[in-house]
Design goal:
By secondary structure, this protein is an alpha+beta fold. It is 54% helix and 8% strand. The protein contains four helices and four strands. The structure holds zinc ion.
Length: 157
Amino acid sequence: MARHRRYVSRGGRRETGKLVLLVVLLLVLVAAATLVAAVLGGGSGLAWISVLASLLGAALLFADRIRTRRGGEEIAAARRLGAEPGEERSNAAEAADPDAGVVVVDERPRYHVRTCEWLGEAETLPLELGEARELGFTPCARCAPNATIAAESGRSR
Ligand SMILES: [Zn+2]
């Protein structure tokens, strides 16, 4: 039923970031311990384990850096949209047809009519009005989807 993520879903990304740091810390500890053991015991096998653990840690950090940067680009794209418009204040919510089409932008809290000027070139997801409400989206004050849809269905009757 819920095909779209709620707009608040950044938590997971932060949690995995912490996990990666923990794993890297462990690898560094393993690398340091095996290096000390290799120096004390003179075994070259242990030294190789140390090198491998260090390389793995570095690779993990690098991969996480790239992933984090991608997340940053997503946020930057969302920011290009400008400040979130306020919430529509109208008493048309009940009169608006819940099956009417609206659009939302992933991770943003408002739903809009397709022609909303605030959307610009942003990538939008089509939803039904009722569905958007169930997912916790609220109407945009700029395009006033409730009033617009209510007026349209009134005209077609
Ligand atoms: Zn709008």
